[in-house]
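I am writing to request your help with a piece of structural work I have in hand. The matter concerns a single protein, recorded as an amino acid sequence and a row of backbone structure tokens. Could you please explain, in whatever detail you think fit, how the structure tokens follow from the sequence? Thank you for your consideration; the sequence and its tokens are set out here:
>
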Amino acid sequence: MESDNKRSEKWILVKGFLKTLRPQIALFVLHSMIFGVVYFLTNQESRIFWTAFQITFALFMLSIAIQAYFYMKKVERAKRIEQEHEKQTAPNEFISQVYEANYFALIDQMRSKKRKDMEKQSDLMDYFSLWIHQIKTPVSAMSLILQSQKEKTAAHKKLEQELIYLNDYIHLALNYLKLEETGKEIEIESVDVDNILKTVVKKYAILFIYNKIKLDFEPTGLVVQSDRKWIEVLIEQLLSNSLKYTKQGTIRLYSRGGQQLIIEDTGSGISPSDLPKIFEKGYTGLNGRLHEKSTGIGLFISRKITHRLNIILNIESELNVGTKAIIDFSSEDAVLFD
């Protein structure tokens, strides 16, 4: 019985070794056929072919013998290692120890990388926050210089408008950084939406006047429990968008159903293919690509604000007709998302 097991083991080893030789055997047969065809086509004597074949075959068998020697050395080494492992510890226990060691090593690497990424992100946020606050000083100086000039030329009016856009971009970047800081608290209070609308309209009065856009403002009477600062940022962003994409016509501010604020314009509108993607970060769509002032960040930030305040923002639009931004304050849940 023991001899049968040995014969079976030897046969398994032979089969394993022959499998490793399959490519070499196939290559040897192919070369022999090529040589035979060449000798046949060139009308050479057969003894030349058989002499070359015998020499090649002898070298091939020598190569197989050398490979068989090293193959058996590997088999013996593998058996020796297996026996040592069986003496020291059970196989399953040994594998478990290896997996456990690798697992904890990977956990340490992941924590280290996560810590470095957080430190890098914190440094980057601090730098941009500092830069944004520093850039506000020269912008304020430019604004004062423009206000001190009495003559209102076309160039002066253009500079005033561009300065408003520049301020918007600075505040947009600052608000983006604040939204990324999830630990920021939200101050809930009674917010008079009409007062915020008046403040925002006053800020953009120059754009309404110089671009000859009509404002239709119907007092809403809306008073909501929310964060005043973020509600103002939200309305600013939506009204700024309407002003960017409305070359002529009217922008309406009104309420509907007692809980909805609507900002409606007669601007260029949004194509049906772009509408599902407008809240994605960096997405500008067709109009955005044609409009040099589009960043693709405004509506992304607007959606983040509404999620944080647990209110709903919907955009309805028709290309070349206009856009309607609907802020719905009717949510009854007092849950605030961060």
Remarks:
- The chain has a mean pLDDT of 80.
- Residues 2-88 form one domain.
- The first strand starts at residue 189 and ends at 192.
- The chain has two domains: 2-88, 186-338.
